[in-house]
Write a structure and sequence with these properties.
Elements (H helix, E strand, L loop, with lengths): L10 H16 L4 H8 L3 H14 L21 H13 L14 H12 L5 H11 L15 H21 L2 E3 L17 E3 L2 E4 L3 H4 L4
Parallel strand pairs: 1-3
Antiparallel strand pairs: 2-3
Length: about 210
């Protein structure tokens, strides 16, 4: 008979197949003969008979698959609550960790310090998902940017800058505050050998993306 994968059968069909195995065994057939007749391996037949011998009919019932709820946890409930509270109330650097934002590596170090348990990074991800923390994508936008102020600046201020730069044969450079600091971005142009360069006034820098 063609081999049967018991895992793919419905629970009722699995139990019926086990009862068939037990009935054939009680009739005197060998494990090999039963395996050939019902489409299971010899080891599978032996395991069914062993379970029946230990648990009787209860050994033939299908059991829930997968790990028992609550297993796979390395932290006690109180430890989990403590770590969740620390993540919710503090940033890593406030707790003396060498991270600016919470990541799996940061949480891993926090757990190791507070609980004395070193977990795999993948396990940390499982805990974070279980606690309701999800990964966030940073916005590609300045935190102080005002879209309304940007539109107003582009309509009213920028055309005047373009006109003045064109009149003085200058070049307009764009940049964020990190590359065009207020101390160097002044209304007056800075001279350069190749011509005149312009940076926007410092009052406008804060609305740039």
């Amino acid at each position: 008979m063609k081999h049967v994968d018991m895992r793919k059968l419905p629970a009722a069909a699995q139990e019926e197949r086990r009862r068939q195995v037990v009935g054939l065994r009680e009739s005197g057939l060998t494990y090999d003969a039963i395996a050939a007749q019902v489409g299971l391996t010899r080891t599978g037949v032996f395991d069914i008979c062993r379970r029946f011998g230990e648990q009787c009919l209860a050994g033939l019932a299908s059991q829930p698959r997968g790990p028992t709820p609550g297993t796979g946890r390395f932290l006690e409930a109180e430890q989990e609550a403590q770590i969740r509270a620390e993540i919710s109330r503090h940033t890593p650097d406030e707790l003396g960790l060498p991270f600016a934002l919470w990541s799996r590596a940061a949480v891993r170090m926090l757990i190791e310090r507070h609980c004395g348990v070193r977990l795999a990074v993948r396990t940390i991800g499982t805990y974070l998902a279980r606690w309701g923390f999800t990964a966030q994508k940073p916005l590609r936008q300045a935190d102080e940017q005002s879209p309304k102020a940007v539109r107003r600046w582009l309509r009213h201020d920028y055309p005047a800058i373009v006109a003045q730069a064109r009149e003085e044969k200058g070049t307009i450079f764009w940049g964020t505050r990190s590359v065009c600091a207020p101390t160097t971005c002044v209304a007056a142009a800075s001279l350069h050998e190749a011509g005149r360069q312009w940076c926007a006034p410092a009052t406008s820098a804060r609305v740039w993306a």
